[in-house]
Specification:
The protein is of the alpha/beta class. The chain has helices at about 5-10, 55-60, 70-75, 80-85, 90-95, 105-110, 135-145, 165-185, 205-215, 230-240, 260-270, 280-285, 315-320, 325-330, 335-360, 365-375, 380-410, and strands at about 15-20, 25-30, 35-40, 40-45, 65-70, 100, 115, 120-125, 130-135, 150-155, 190-195, 220-225, 250-255, 275, 285-290, 295. It binds one RNA strand of 72 nucleotides through helix 6, helix 12 and helix 17.
Length: about 425
RNA sequence: GUGGCCGUAGCUCAAUGGCAGAGCACUGGAUUGUGGCUCCAGUGGUUGUGGGUUCGAGUCCCAUCGGUCACC
């Protein structure tokens, strides 16, 4: 296969427009075959070729510039081959703007079961029907080429947190070898392939990984392996260690981050792109994002509030409905509540990105960031990490029972 | 009218005569390369009412009120 990375660099130009003198925050433009992305930008997550509960028309209206789709999910269902026959993922989901696809690496580690890992790839069981599957760097790239996304990600190994230095090092080195194979496997020139920096919370490994991955000259770079249960301090320490080692003329993408306050921090570290399930997930669970922090929509205080959930917001939800109505929808578990809250939270993230960009272009991001963080209320981190651990444990404990139920269904015993 | 059964948290129900509890609901949180899931914490009681037996009663006895079923 011809190496097409240099050909791709023309189609995927990143133009740096401004750098904040105080923090190093960047404003730029990233061009793709399906349009230009103004950065910093937040990418809504559309796991199964849909941003849950929303139509493409609504995503355009709320200002989404690019969405993320998950290769792992689409590979298992309906199958990337099927999507290729239907004309690719843009046509399939009727989204005409840019799409970034995850490689499936993270999902294999977080969702699949009974996985066995070797240097060639990963064998695992589908979380949908228990069938045995195998992904390698080559297959992950082939799958993403069948999807036809604008930006593909290298197949990587994301280690769990916490982990040992030795294990993190082995995973980062394997990620490097897999990045070389991913790059060699690429055959299309109308898709960009991003490399991923790993190394867990160890700065020396992050530095080593950044050096290895950038030597492969990808059109963009991601920082992976964060937002997996580590402290904020670790997350920002690692991010701040990596971004100075990445080329200034390529986009940087911090995977799986984040919340509004995390975007503000990430941008201050010099990150351009973010994706996170949090805004849409907490929307479905009844939490709205505002400049003063998160608002639980079921709180009784909102039962009679005629004003919208965020008076400063210009989204369809806030222009049209009272907080009392959203409160009612969530108490009654009505479907419209999931949609209206998702519209609001994604509009909030789009506006937040635009506000940061504006501040950077005016050379006053440092001050803007201080003002934002002064009024944005965040949850206590100790509570956050404790609860995360308990939820993870509950999820793992429930899994065998779910698998057994699935097993008996598929084998026809039950 | 007679007989049986049942009255415990807002609801559905637990509790050998020995610290009155659970689920749901309600209140407040959490959710980070997707988990419409889930988790954490909290409020809430004259055990229908009045007597009695007992060291001790939601539990046993009597009365009474309410519900319910069967039979006149």
């Amino acid at each position: 296969m011809p190496n097409t990375a240099s050909g791709a660099s023309d189609a995927f130009r990143y133009t740096l427009e401004a750098t904040d003198p105080e923090t190093g925050a960047r404003a730029g433009r990233f061009s793709t075959p399906h349009g230009e992305i103004l950065t910093p930008a937040f990418m809504p997550v559309g796991t199964q070729a849909t941003v849950k509960s929303l139509s493409p028309r609504e995503l355009v209206e709320l200002g989404a510039q690019i969405v993320l789709a998950n290769t792992y999910h689409l590979y298992l269902r309906p199958g990337t081959e099927t999507i290729a026959r239907l004309g690719g993922v843009h046509k399939f989901m009727r989204w005409e703007r840019p799409i970034l696809t995850d490689s499936g690496g993270f999902q294999v580690f977080s969702l699949a079961h009974l996985r066995t890992l070797d240097d060639d790839g990963v064998t695992f069981r589908s979380h949908i029907d228990g069938s045995e599957q195998r992904l390698t760097p080559e297959r992950a790239i082939a799958a993403q080429e069948q999807l036809g996304s604008d930006v593909m990600m290298c197949f990587d190994e994301c280690v769990e947190y916490p982990t040992t230095h030795a294990r993190a090092r082995a995973a980062a080195q394997r990620t490097h070898r897999w990045a070389e194979r991913s790059r060699r496997a690429q055959s299309r020139s109308d898709q960009a392939l991003f490399g991923i920096v790993q190394g867990s919370t160890f700065e020396d490994l992050r530095t080593e990984s950044a050096r290895d991955i950038t030597s492969l000259d990808f059109p963009g770079y991601a920082i992976g392996g964060v937002s997996v249960g580590e402290s904020k301090e670790d997350c920002w320490r690692v991010t701040a260690a990596v971004t100075p080692l990445l080329p200034t003329h390529k986009p940087r993408y911090l995977m799986g981050v984040g919340s509004p306050e995390d975007l503000v921090e990430g941008v201050a570290c010099g990150v351009d792109l973010f994706d996170c399930v949090l805004p849409t997930r907490i929307a479905r669970n009844g939490t709205a994002l505002t400049d003063t922090g998160r608002v639980t929509l079921t709180r009784s205080q909102l039962r009679t509030q005629e004003a919208p959930i965020d008076a400063t917001c210009d989204c369809y939800t806030c222009r049209t409905f009272s907080a009392a109505y959203l409160h009612h929808l969530f108490k009654a578990e009505e479907l419209l509540g999931y949609r209206l809250a998702s519209i609001h939270n994604l509009r909030y993230m789009a506006r937040l990105s635009a506000r940061m960009r504006e501040a950077i272009l005016h050379g006053r991001y440092g001050a803007w960031r201080r003002e934002f963080l002064a009024t944005y209320r965040v949850a206590d981190e100790k509570t956050r990490l404790e609860q995360r651990e308990k939820r993870t444990a509950a999820w793992s404990a429930a899994r065998p029972a779910l698998d057994a139920a699935r097993e008996s269904r598929t084998s026809g015993v039950a």
